[in-house]
Amino acid sequence: MTRKPKPRRISFMPSATYFKPRGIPLSSLEEEVLTVDELEALRLTDVEQLEQTKAAKKMQISQSTLQRILTKAHQKVSTALTMGRAIKIEGGAYIMQNSQQPTGGRGRMGGPVAGGPDGTCICTNPDCKAEVPHQTGVPCSDQKCPKCGSSMTRKA
Predict the structure, then answer these.
(1) What are the counts of helices (DSSP H) followed by strands (DSSP E) for the chain?
(2) Of 7, 31, 55, 85, which is least surrounded by CB within 10 A?
(3) Beta bridge partner(s), residue 89
């Protein structure tokens, strides 16, 4: 029997949670499901270019756990790209940086505590930068900017 995974600390929620190959109907696609914590590990190491020890510290996990998460994430993304599959981002055991409550292990991201009880949503348009208070239970990515209509994201 396996142990329930320790929630990983994340500080980024994607505004887009589904990617598919162009020209292939959605009904005929297979999916690779990438968890939110796997995406965070990819973001910290590949986009932010942090060393694994620093990325693991940010996620409050061991470096060996981060390595296992990265290996799974790279395998899923590589499979999707080479086999022409869609990538769906959802679930995983994680806690938002400003929250103390974990999400359910296989729950849909954006549940009542996924973004934490408080905080701020900011506009993704670099020219606008509007901020609104976060509404508990409503992911920032599901909101539109009241000023320009662009999507919103959680303020780190």
Answers:
(1) 3, 8
(2) 31
(3) 34
Q: Where are the beta strands (DSSP E) in 2-155?
A: 8-10, 18-19, 31-34, 86-89, 94-96, 120-123, 131-133, 152-154
Would you write out the chain's pLDDT as a tens digit for each of its 156 residues?
677 778 899 988 888 899 999 998 888 899 999 999 999 999 999 999 999 999 999 999 999 999 999 999 999 999 999 999 999 999 988 888 765 555 544 444 444 334 445 678 888 888 887 888 877 667 777 788 888 888 888 876
Determine which helix (DSSP H) or strand (DSSP E) holds 133, and give its type and residue range.
strand 131-133
- Give the H/E segment covering residue 88: strand 86-89
Cβ distance 99 to 36 under 8 Å?
no
Q: Model-level pTM?
A: 0.63
d(CA 92, CA 36): 6
Euclidean distance between CA atoms 53 and 33, whole angstroms: 25
Q: Where are the domains of the chain?
A: 8-111, 118-156
**3-class secondary-structure state, position 152:** strand
